Amino acid sequence: MSKFVTSERLPFRAGAIAWQLAQTFWVGGLWLLHFVVLPALGRIGLAPMLVEEVAATLRPLLVAFTGFCALLQALLLIQHAGLARLWRDARAQLLAAVLALVVVFLLVRFWMPEALYWLNFSYLLLAFCGLLLVVQPLPAKPMKGQAR
Q1: How many of the other CB atoms lie within 10 Å of CB of 77?
Q2: Residue 82, SS3 per DSSP
Q3: Measured torsion, CA atoms of residues 132, 92, 68, 11, in degrees rounded to the nearest 10
Q4: Torsion over CA: 120, 123, 127, 128 (sign)
Q5: What is the pLDDT at residue 2?
Q6: 142: left (phi over 0), alpha (psi -120 to 50) or beta
Q7: Which residues contact 8 (CB under 8 A, 6 or more apart)?
Q8: What was the pLDDT predicted at 64?
Q9: Going by C-beta distance under 8 Å and a sequence separation of 6 or more, which residues neighbour residue 103?
Q10: Which of 134, 137, 126 is nearest to 34 (CA)?
């Protein structure tokens, strides 16, 4: 037994690493696009219509990628927790909300593209759910009260 703390840590499993990577891509991407890239484009002097066109092009792509990453995370969570205990897990509930918001965003974009408030609302809810998911423990670590 070494006296260094780092040698006593359990190694991350591949599922936990995939969980973190997918979460970093979609949550970070949503926040980066909305709060960094689009304001920066407006600040450097691009025309507001051009910034809106960039947002209208990138947001649906990023939301679809969010859906893919959330599906991957849901599969990893099913593998970790099993189907029996899945819906009592806050991570599963947040992922279900994310997938529902992705479907709502894409359907509204397809059938009512002029409903910008609904698109922005569902996009920001996606970002907020992602932020709540970030503070949840990784699937590789047992939650409090959960026996392994």
Answers
A1: 18
A2: coil
A3: 80
A4: positive
A5: 55
A6: beta
A7: 1, 2
A8: 97
A9: 67
A10: 126
Confidence (pLDDT) at 1: 52
pLDDT along the chain (148 residues), means of 10: 52 78 94 95 93 94 97 90 80 95 95 90 95 88 52
Locate tokens 């920066």: which residue?
40
Neighbours of 75 (CB within 10 A): 13
DSSP secondary structure string for all residues of 112-145: -TT-HHHHHHHHHHHHHHHHHHHTSPPTTSPPTT
pLDDT, position 16: 85
The values of phi and psi at residue 112, to 5°, are -135, 70
Residue type, 99: L
